[in-house]
Write a structure and sequence with these properties.
The complex is a heterodimer.
Chain A (H helix, E strand, L loop, with lengths): L3 E4 L2 E4 L5 E7 L5 E7 L5 E9 L2 E4 L6 E3 L9 E3 L8 E8 L10 E2 L3 E5 L1
Chain B lengths: L2 E4 L4 E4 L4 E3 L1 E4 L5 E7 L5 E7 L5 E4 L2 E4 L9 E3 L8 E8 L8 E2 L3 E6 L1
Parallel strand pairs in B: 2-12
Antiparallel strand pairs in B: 1-4, 3-9, 5-6, 5-10, 7-8, 8-9, 10-11, 10-12
Classes of the chains: A mainly beta, B mainly beta.
Chain lengths: 115, 113
């Protein structure tokens, strides 16, 4: 199993450009999430999905869109990049649990710089 | 809402020193607690977890005990190595959040030979 994969690894955008960060998992996990990591702030949840066709906003959703057409893929779209979106982005997935305990698996991250 | 507070960093230690990284939380209900580690240039890996009060999670010589009375989940290791240099994140999730994690701000640990 590849686990959670993310592409690209690095990206530089100009202000106003749009792009899509790709995330895929091969563990048949229902739950997928996008986080951004900024110095001194830990990781903050952008969007998440509890299954194909179902998404919802996290703590910092503005400027980002998501969709989930398959169980495996959960792309994150930046609509019009801004310097404040310079960050490291992590995708994560987890399986459901009758006990309510969810262990998340993280991808390697995408380092995005917006100039 | 849920929140996690970690001790301020960075933390610098000599090899074989004792490590404690403090973590306290606020949550409704009975959350699960986690420590994640991020090595330089890599993603996050689960280090250990505890799912109910008084549980002790352990892995690679690291330990943390779920203390409901003090709402804490402090990370400890008796003798750190240079290879333990990384960023450590405390996090929680509860069953109502479908695994969504609330993270602390992270603590940078540097271990010198």
């Amino acid at each position: 199993n590849a686990g959670v994969t993310q592409t690209p690894k690095f990206q530089v955008l100009k202000t106003g450009q749009s792009m899509t960060l790709q995330c895929a998992q091969d563990m048949n996990h229902e739950y997928m999430s996008w986080y951004r990591q900024d110095p001194g702030m830990g990781l903050r949840l952008i969007h998440y999905s509890v299954g194909a066709g179902i998404t919802d906003q996290g703590e910092v959703p503005n400027g980002y869109n998501v969709s989930r057409s398959t169980t495996e893929d959960f792309p994150l779209r930046l609509l019009s990049a801004a310097p404040s979106q310079t960050s490291v982005y992590f995708c994560a997935s987890s399986s459901g649990s009758a006990s309510g305990i969810y262990e998340q698996y993280f991808g390697p991250g995408t380092r995005l710089t917006v100039t | 809402g849920n929140s996690v507070t970690q001790m301020e960093g960075p933390v610098t230690l000599s090899e074989e020193a004792f490590l404690t990284i403090n973590c306290t939380y606020t949550a409704t209900g009975y959350p699960s607690l986690f420590w994640y580690v991020q090595y330089p240039g890599e993603g996050l890996q689960l280090l250990l977890k505890a799912t109910k009060a008084d549980d002790k999670g352990s892995n690679k010589g690291f330990e943390a005990t779920y203390r409901k009375e003090t709402t804490s989940f402090h990370l400890e290791k008796g003798s750190v190595q240079v290879s333990d240099s990384a960023v450590y994140f405390c996090a929680l999730s509860d069953y109502t959040s479908y695994g969504k994690l609330t993270f602390g701000q992270g603590t940078i640990l540097t271990v010198h030979p």
